[in-house]
Amino acid sequence: MKERYLREEAQKKLAEEEKKRRWEKIVRETKQQTDAKEEYDALRDMLWEEELEERRKKEEQERIANRLKQREDLMQQNKAQIIAQKEMIAKMEQEEKRLVQLMLTKFADDEEDERRKEQARQE
Asked: How far apart are the first and last CA of the chain?
């Protein structure tokens, strides 16, 4: 009877050890799965952050490029406006010279007419 009791106790002990071993295996596997998931999540988050940072850098570079382009466009427009103003001033000066010359010619003609009329009266 004692032998049977010892055998049953040994079997119970073996069963408990087997149960404990299986439980520890489940705990290990669960921990491994949790660790793997956490590592995957951390890597995914890092990748997402890198992509987000890259997108931010690209957007900032685009903003800077757009500002530079706008500034350059404005400078080109200013240059074109200055050239147009210079051309307009040159045309106005040319027209003024033409009008002055026309007036001088008219005055000379008028003086010549007056001189002739005066000479004709004296004759």
From this structure: 179
3-state helix, strand, coil in the chain (%, to 5): 100, 0, 0
Distance between CA atoms of residues 106 and 99, nearest Å: 10
SS3 16: helix
| Count of residues in the chain | 123
Is residue 73 helix, strand or coil?
Answer: helix
> Tokens in use for 8?
């049953």
What would the pLDDT profile of 37-72 be if each residue is shown by its tens digit?
999 999 999 999 999 999 999 999 999 999 999 999
pTM of the model: 0.50
